[in-house]
Queue: 2 jobs
Job 1
Amino acid sequence: MTLKTFRARIRQSIADDNLQIALDNNAARRRDGRQAAFASLPDHEQRRLRAHIIKADVVANLDQYLNQFIDRVTANGILVHRAADADEAIRIFMEIALASGAKQARSDAELKPLLVAKSKSMLSEEIDFNHALETAGMRAVETDLGEYIVQLRGERPSHIITPAVHLRRGDVGKLFAEKLGIPYTEDIPVLTNTARKVLREIFLTADIGISGVNFGVVESGTLALVTNEGNGRMCTTIPPVHVALMGIERLVPSLGDLALFLSLLARSATGQKLSVYTSLINSPLPGQTRHLILLDNGRFALQASPLAESLFCIRCGACLNACPVFRETGGHAYGSIYPGPIGSVISCALVDPQLAYLAQASSLCGACKEACPVDIDLPGMLLCVRSGHSPQKPQTKIKEGVGIHPAVKIGLTGYRLAAASSGLFAFFQGLGGLLSRVYSPRRSYMHLPDWTGWGYSKDFPRLDVHPFRSHWGKIVQHVENKPIRLQESPKPLDPESRPPGKSLPDRFAEELSALGGHAYIVSGKELPARLAEFMESKKIDRVLVDDEGAGFVTGIPTLRQPDPSVRAGVTGALAGIAETGSLLLTSGAGETLKASLLPEIHVVVLKASRILPTLTDALAMPEVGAVAAGVVITGPSRTADIEMTLTIGVHGPGELHVFLIDDSMPV
Amino acid sequence: MTETVQLFITCLIDSFFPHIGEAMVNVLNRAGVKVDFPSAQTCCGQPAFNAGFRSTAVPMARHTIRVFEKTTGAIIIPSGSCAAMVRHGYLELFKDDPAWLERARALSLRVFEFTEYLVDVCGVTGLSARWSGKLTYHPSCHLLRSLGVDRQPRALLAAIKDAEIIELPEREDCCGFGGVFSVEHPELSAEFLKRKIANLDKTGSPTLVVADTGCLMHIQGGLARQGKNQRVLHIAEVLNNQ
C-alpha cells in the first residue's frame, strides 16, 4: 500500500456512515469499560509501572530469557521450533502437519483436506498463515466469533481484539444468511448460536488446533492463553495436535509476573477483571502432541533499534480504542494487520518497511500512551519512526521526515533558515504580515484553498503586522509588590474507601454473580441433596465428571469420557479466587478440562477454605507449574464480537454453578 | 526581591497573537514577577522535530539553547507543546550528542509553562481577575499529557470572579491540530475539529479557554470557517481581564 492509497482509504472510512457509527460506539464503550475496570484496582498506576519495568528487563535481556524459556518448555515435553521469518514458520508448520497426517494414516487422507481449527492469533495474521494453509490444500477455520465472521467475509481483522468491530449486526445477519443458509436475522444470540453449532463440529473433528500465546512464563515454561469464548481451550485441548505460535518477545519471567500482566490485559482489552478463560499450558495432555513455533520476523531488529520499547506491547488494543485517528479510520485503512498507534510503530518493522508513513497519521495527542497498560511511550516511538529511526533493510532506506509532502519539507527548511537569526525572522514576520493583509484585507482569519491542507476545514490567522518582538520595548511593567498568594485549602486525603473486610467466600460469590455465574454456600452434609435437587431442576439425567466430581454426584449416571449428548459436567477445582470470582482447574485427575468445557452447564464443587484472595496467590500454588495444563475460569463463556453486545454461552458452558462447601466450622 | 523571569514568547504568539504576550506580561507582573525578553529568540524547532526532520530541528534547538543560556532564572513559555519540546524533546534530539545534551538538560530544568509557573512556583491563583459569563476549558494534549499540567489552569480559572466555568464534554479529546498533522492529514484533522466544535456548542459557552496557541488558532480557524461566533482565548487573556 502507498501513502496515496492510505489517504484514499481514510477518506473512504470517513464517508462510510455505518463504519463511523460502529467506531464511535467502540470508542465510547471501550473507554468507559476500561476506566471502570481500572477503578477496581486501586494500585493500577504502580502495576503499570511494574509491568513496564518487567518488560524493559525482558526485552533488554531477550536472548537470555528466551534460551531459559526454550529449555524449560522443551523439558516439559513440548516440541519447540524457532523461525526467523514468516516463510520459515510456515515451512515448519507444514512439516508438522505432514507428519501428523501420516501418523493418523487415515484412509480418506487423500480425499479430505487436513482440518485446522484456529484460535485467534495476531501472529498468524502477521505471517498471513491462513493464505499459506489454503494454498497447501488445508482447510483452516477461525473459531473466535469475530475472526470467523471476517474470515467468512474474506477480510482481515480490523482490530487486534475485536476483529469485526467495523461491522454492525445487520452485516453479520446478511453474511450468515448468505454463507450459512440461515434465515436473515439481527438477533445476536441467534447469530452466535449458529456459529457455535458450526464451529463445535470443527473442534471435534479438527486434525490440528492452532493457537497464539499471550504470555510465555520463563520460570515454568508455561504458555498462557486467554479467550472469552472458550475457543482457545477447544483448540488446545480437543485436537490430537496443538501448535502454538508465539512472538519471541511475549515473555514474562515468573508466574507472579503473569498474574500482574493478566490483571492489566483483560482490563485494558475488554474492561474485564480477567478474561473468562486463561489456559495455562505446560505439557501435552495424554495422547496429544504439542508444538511451539517461536517467531522472530523482525523482533530482534526492533530490539536493537530505538523502537525496542514497542516490544513491551501485550496486544490489548487499548491504544486503538483511545486513538482519535483509529476512531475515524477503523483498522482496515491502515493497510497493516496491526492498526492504531502501536501498529503505526511496529508495522514498518514487522510487516512492510514501506508502512513507515503511517506514523504521520497521528496528532501526537498522547491518548495512546495514557491508555497503554505497560506505559509504552507511543508518541515518542511515532516520532522515532518519523525521523527514519525504524529498523531498516539496506534496500529500503527510510529517510527522515518519512511520509511528509515535499512542499511541507521545503517549507520547514525555509522556516529553519528564517529562524537562524532574529533579524531575518523579524523581516519575514513583517513580510508575512503585509502579504496576509493583501490576501485578506478585511477578515482576520484567511480562507486558504483546500490544497493547502489547512484550508480544507479551517481558516488561517493573518500574521500581525506588529509582532510581539516589535512592541517589547514599549511595554511598561508595573510589578506588584504584594501579590496574592495561593489560598488553596489542603486537599482532603482520600479516605480508605475499602469496604469492611468481607469473607473470601462472600467476595467470591459476589464477583461470580456479577459475571453471570452462581455460587451456593452449603454444608458438607447437605451437598448431595442440593446437587441432586439442582440436577433435577435442570432436567439433567447424566453428567460428565472428573475424579473429584465423581465423588460428589449421587443418584444419576456419571460418564468419564466426553459425549456430545451430555448437558452438564461436574468437576472439582484446585482453588477459587475471591478478587475476580475465578476458579483454578487443573488436568491430571480425570477429564477435568473437557468436563468443564464441552457441556453447556458446568458445576464446580469446592471447599470454601480453598478460596484464595488473589490471582497472584492462586498462580503461586506449586501445582500450576507442575500439571500438564490448567485453566482459570472467570464466569460463563461469553463474546461481545458483534456490536460489543454481550452474549453468554459461546463455545464453553453458558452456565457456571459453584457449590461452596462451608468447612469453616469444625465438624 | 523581585524575581525576574525570561519570556520565551513562542513563534505563534510572536507572529500571530502579540496581544497574548502583552497580557501574559501583565499577569506575571501582577503575580509579582518582572519579565525579560531575550530578543534573539526565534522558534524552538518543534514543527520540524515533530515532522521527523531532526536535522532541521537541531540548529533551531541549538539557537534557542544559546539564546537562553545567556540569561538566568526561570524561562516561561505560554504553550504546553513548546514547553514540552524544550523540557523533553531536546533531550531526545540531543541524546547522542553528550555536550549538547548537557546544555539541553540544564535548560530543561529552567523551563516552565505559564500556568504551571504561576500556580506551582509563585503559588498564585487569585489574580483578582474578573469575567462575566460562561467559560469552558480545553486541555491541550501536550500540556495535559506531556507536562501533566491540568490542576494549575483549572485552579486559575476557578479563582476568576463572576465566571461560570462549564465542563467541556469529551474535553481531553485532541482538537486535531498536531502541527504538521493538520496539513498532512487534513481529513482526519477536520473530523477531530468538527467534534471539538460540536462539544463546544453543547456547553453554550461563548468563550473557550486554552493554554496553547496551536489549539487556539486551529479551533478559532474552524469556528471562522463555520461562521460561528464563539471566541477562543488564551488563558493569559482571561486572567488579564479585571
Note: Chain A has a mean pLDDT of 90.
Job 2
Amino acid sequence: MYKDPKPKKITMDEWSVRFKNIDNKTIKKFVYYNNHDWGLYLQPPATFMVYGTRELRRLRFDNSLAALRMWGFVFNESERLFRARQSGKKIVATMGDLGTVSIIVMAFPDCIPFYPECIWWTPFFNESTVLLDLASELGAPEAACFSRAALAAFVKKAYFPKPDYIFASTGATCDDYSCIMQSIEHLGYDFMWLEVPLRRSPAKHVSMDSLVKTKNGFEYPRRFEEYLIKEYEKVWQKMVEITGIDDQNLLMVSIKKANQVRTLVEKIKRTTYQAGNAPFPALELMTIEFGNLYGYADMDEWIRILEMIYETIVERTKKNIGIISEDAIPIAWVNPTADPYLLDYVERIGLRVVDTEYVINQALVEIDEQIEPFRALAQSFMQASLIGSTAQRISSINKAMRTGKIEGILITNMLGGSHCAMETKLMERLLKDKPVLAIDVPAPFGITEQIKTRLQAFAEVLHERRK
Amino acid sequence: MVLGLDVGSCYTKGVLFDNGVKKEYVVNTAYKPKIAIAEIKKKLGDFDKIAATGYGRNLVSDADHVITEISAFGRGAFAANPLIRTIIDVGGQDSKIIKVRDGRVDRFVMNDRCAAGTGNFVEKIAQALNLTLKEFGTLALQSTSPETIDSLCVVMAESEILSLTAEGKEPRDIVAGVCDSLMRRIVNLGAQIGIEEPILFCGGGALNPGLVKALKRIYEDVIVPEHPQFIGAIGAAVSLR
C-alpha cells in the first residue's frame, strides 16, 4: 500500500513519477459504479490531458493518495458517463439549480444526474479552448458566462452522452445560463423547465402570508416554499414516467446520501480551516465543495473518496503538518475562480483560503430528514445565496470578518458572468471598510503579471496590517 | 547604502538611498529590462543591498528584497510626506490609486486595461499633435479654457482631437482638455476606494505640469514630491531598511 509522504504540493510530472510506486492492488481497489471490470480510475493527472498538458502543468496537486484518488475520479467523469450509458443507466442532465434536482434524480435506480454546466471546468484544465470558441460561433460569445461551454459540448456530443432527459431550472438562477439552456433546448432535447423563486425581502409580503426563517437567518414567504415543492413534484412525476418506478422511500435514501456527503464536506472544511497548518490545498477543497452538487456522477464512490480525504486531513492535523506556512493570512474567497491556477497561486504568496462563497451554499446545508422530503428539499434550497440579495450573499463573510476568522476578502469575477458584473461593485460597497480585492479573471490561461501583482500587493497589505 | 530599483514598463528608475536620496538615475526600459537594470547598477555605483519593485521586479535576480509597486509607492509616499492619505501614480503602462493609512497601504485600485487611463494616453496624443512631452505640458499650462474630450479610448480621442483642430480650437485648450480627460478618468477609478486629501501625485505623469494642473482643478491639496518618478524606487529602498 502506498504510504503518503510528508504533505507537499507537487506538479503533474512529479505525480507521474510517484505513481510508479503505487502497486496494482491499490490501483484495482478504487472503482466507479462498483464495477471491477471497467471502473478503474486511479491515474496520475497527466493521463487525462488528451488535449494537451500545458494547463495542468501550471498546477500543483496535493501529494496524498486521497488527493490522487479524487483527481482521478473527477477527471474521469466524462468516461464514467459514457460507461453509464453503455451499461444501460439513464443519464439525466440537471441544469441550473445546482444541487437539489440531482437528489431527486439520484433516487431512481440506475439514473445518473450530472451538471453539463460543470463542463466549464474542462477548458480550464485543458489546453484547448475549442468549447468556448464553438460556443461563440453558436451565439454565446465572450460576453456570456463560461458556462456557455455546455452549449458547445451539447453540439459536439463528445463530452457526455446524449441525456435521456433534461431538467432546466430558471428564474432566480444564472440568467446567462438560462439563455444557454434555451439554446440547448432548441437543439431538440427532451426538456422540462422548472422555476426557482427569488428570495424576496419579506417586508413586502409579511401581510400576505406567513414567513419561514432559514437556518442561516434568511426569511421568505411560505408560499415560495409551496411553489418549489410543486416544481419538485413535477420533476418526480417525470422521473416516474421515465423509469416506471414510484417509491418515495427511495427519495429518503437519496436525501440521506446527500446529507452524508454534506456532513463529510462540512467536517473536512471545518477541520482544515481550524488547523494551525493548512492540511489540504484550496484547489482540492474547491473541487470537494463542488462535489456536493452531484458527487461527480457517482455519489457512492464520491462518499468513499471523501471519507479517505477526511482521514488524511485528520491524520495531518493530529501531526500538525500541512502544505501552507502557519503564518499564512486567512482570507475568504467569493465566486468560483475561472482559473484553478489562482487557488494555488494565492497559497504561494502567503494567503490561505478559510471561507468560501462559491454560490453553491444550498448544496452545503444539511437537508431535514424528519419532514416530508419535497418540503425538506425546498427548505434546503431556499437557503441558497444565489437566490437572495447581495447583502445576504456576503452576510456570513461579513460575520467571519467581524469575528477575526478572516483578514481579507478576495472576489474573483468571471469575465462575462452576469452575476459578477452586477454584484461585485455592490459587494465592494457593502464591504467598503474591509480589506477586499476584486479581480477580473479573464478567459482561460489569461492570468497576467498585472493580476499577479494585484494579488501580491493584497497579500503584502494584509501582512502589513498584522504588524 | 541601498539601491532601490523600480523596473517599470516604460522607464527603469534607480536611487541610491541612505537616509535620503543620494543619487538617482532613470533609463528607458525599451523592452529590454535586464539591460536597463544593468545600466542603472553601473551608473549608480556602490551599494550594499538591492530592493526591487515594478513590473520587472522579478528580473532583478540579485535583489535582497522584492515588493510590489503598490507597497513600494505606499512606503515611498510616507517617506516623502507622512501626512499623505492618497497616492495617485500615473505610469506608462498603468495608473494606480492607493489609499494610505498610518503609513501603510489600506486599499488600492489599478487601471491596467485601458491606455486612456495611463500616461500612454498623453504620449499618444502628443505624438498625434507632433509635440514633445515637455512641449505638451508647457502648452497645457497656458490654457484658460480647456476643451472637453469625451471619448473613452485613445483611438477615438485622437479622432475627436483632430475634429477639434479642424474646428480651429486652440492647441493649448485641446491639450489641457486631454489632461483633464485623463485625470477625470483616474479620479473616477479612485472613487471606488474614496480619494482623500492630501494627495501625493507621482510617477512619470507628475512630471507633466498639464496633468498636475488638471488634478489641482479637481482637488486642492495635491502635493508633487521632489522625485515624483522615483517614489517607487525610494519605497523599495525604504522597505529594506
Note: Chain A has 20 helices and twelve strands.
